[in-house]
Here is the input.
Amino acid sequence: MTQTASNAALTGQVAVVTGSGRGIGAAIAASLANLGARVVLCGRSRPSLEATAETIQKRGGQSSVIECDVTNLHSVEALADRVDRTFSKVHILVNNAGIGGAGGPLHMLAPDVWDQVLNTNLRGVYYCMRSLVPLMMRSQGGHIINISSIVGKNPLPNGAAYAASKWGLNGLSYSVAEELRGSNIRVSVICPGSTHTEFSPHAGMNTERMLQPSDVAHAVAMIVTQAPQSFASEIVLRPTQKP
Here is the structure.
């Protein structure tokens, strides 16, 4: 790998991106494909994934669509098995799939909503790493990039479940980074601020001042093309102007 990204920087590499049917995940997948990677698009909605695949194809990139629910271990294991049979290795894993949570005080939050948020944003990342890290070890190195949030570093009143999932994701990322150093697998976490997506519309904000999915994709591209003697363990992205 080199420090300067080019259209051929990731040629021959396989990248798995969860939640790549729209928004940040779709932008990351397109960016990795533009760098030459073969991108495995994962998510629960096949039509959305196929739309991302079509965009990548029009730009001359390569991708494969695999439906996967990250909250279901069997579904994630099936994903890993298919990737293994098709490519036999993985070089990049981007854990992007995530959901928000209903607003309101924690003591009024329904337990099933808590479970849904934590299962998607945290347990799902564990499932993906558990299932795909062995394939990355077979590749003798690679990158795991977990898409967190600036909420994982700051309090979020009336959004405690979402905040808890992202604080937990940050702690998981830092710890696993130490576990996998010896395997030449670099684990990074990206914490974006307010980002304009369908997932998080941020009513009342100036969307032109908000971060865009392409900003997060740019950070991912920087991570996967940096020199081998270093890694960015954490990137915090903020809008230049408060939206």
About this structure: The chain has one domain: 14-237. The radius of gyration is 17 Å. The first strand starts at residue 14 and ends at 18. The chain has six helices and seven strands.
